[in-house]
Amino acid sequence: MSLSVFLRAARVARLPSLCEVCRSWAVSGLCPACVARFAAPRPRCARCGIGLGLAAPACGACLGEPPPFERTVCVADYGFPWDCLVADFKFHGRAELAGVLVEQLTAAVRAAGAPPPDTVLPVPLSAARLAQRGYNQAWELARRVARALALPTSPSVLLRPVDAAHQIELGRAERQRNLRGAFMVDPAQRSTVQGRRCALVDDVMTTGATAHAAANTLRRAGAAAVEVWVLARTPEH
Ligand SMILES: [Zn+2]
Ligand SMILES: [Zn+2]
């Protein structure tokens, strides 16, 4: 039995395995000390999840121009160890990290204590990106968090017909322009979102441009409300 198979089996059986961050023994993927250190709640804008210096209901940007999503739930700021865990999960084929990440995301959603959405859906990848990566990390998170919370999912209602140019180098306004028309709701599944409260899942929210574009598309298709669930939120510089 390989070590990774053993560790996975041990986790399913809730036997101690190694903490993904500090390598001490842990019953789940992160030990309590690392959860306390790296997943501690901090004041955030309820609307877009950005970290705030002081507790306040919303940040200045959201007060000035409310986003098309009602609220954002996130576990932590994007930085160590979340950058490493997300990169391993997303790009280095460590699919087993989904369980560790989802455990934290589920806890954050529960802690937010809002009424449950009617459906949980992933931010989609374009067909080309999906073929390249082999799986959509957002769906791997969405389906697990939905199962943990006993909520229905809509894996294919939101589509991404256009593969937008790579976003990493772009600022927020450029990202928004870049994403215009990037998403659409499958016409055959419109009733899945019409009048429904949708929770949109992704791994990281950077500028929020992707969430804006996806939420706008869902709202235009008749969604009653959209909220966003992400593991990590890039802090303001
Ligand atoms: Zn640890
Ligand atoms: Zn905000």
List keywords for this structure.
8 strands, 9 helices, 4-stranded parallel β-sheet, alpha/beta, binds zinc ion, 237 residues, 36% helix, single chain
Small ligands present: zinc ion
Q: What's the average pLDDT?
A: 90
Shape descriptor: globular
Question: What proportion strand?
Answer: 15-25%
Backbone CA Rg: 18 Å
Q: Between the first and last Cα atoms, what is the distance in angstroms?
A: 46 Å
How many DSSP H or I helices?
Answer: 9
N-to-C order of helices and strands: HEEHHEHHEHHEHEEHE
Could you characterize the architecture of this molecule?
The chain has helices at residues 3-12, 32-38, 60-64, 82-91, 97-112, 127-133, 137-148, 172-178, 209-220; strands at residues 17-18, 25-26, 71-77, 119-122, 158-159, 184-185, 197-205, 225-233. The chain has 237 residues and is of the alpha/beta class. α5 packs across α7 and α8 crosses α9 (209-220). Residues 45, 47-48, 50, 58-59, 61-62 line the site of one zinc ion.
Brief characterization of the structure:
The chain is of the alpha/beta class and 237 residues long. Helix content is 36%, strand content 16%.
Give the arrangement of secondary structure elements.
Layout: H1 3-12, E1 17-18, E2 25-26, H2 32-38, H3 60-64, E3 71-77, H4 82-91, H5 97-112, E4 119-122, H6 127-133, H7 137-148, E5 158-159, H8 172-178, E6 184-185, E7 197-205, H9 209-220, E8 225-233
Parallel strand pairs: 3-8, 4-7, 7-8
Antiparallel strand pairs: 1-2, 5-6
Helix pairs in contact: 5-7, 8-9
The structure holds zinc ion (ZN) (2 copies).
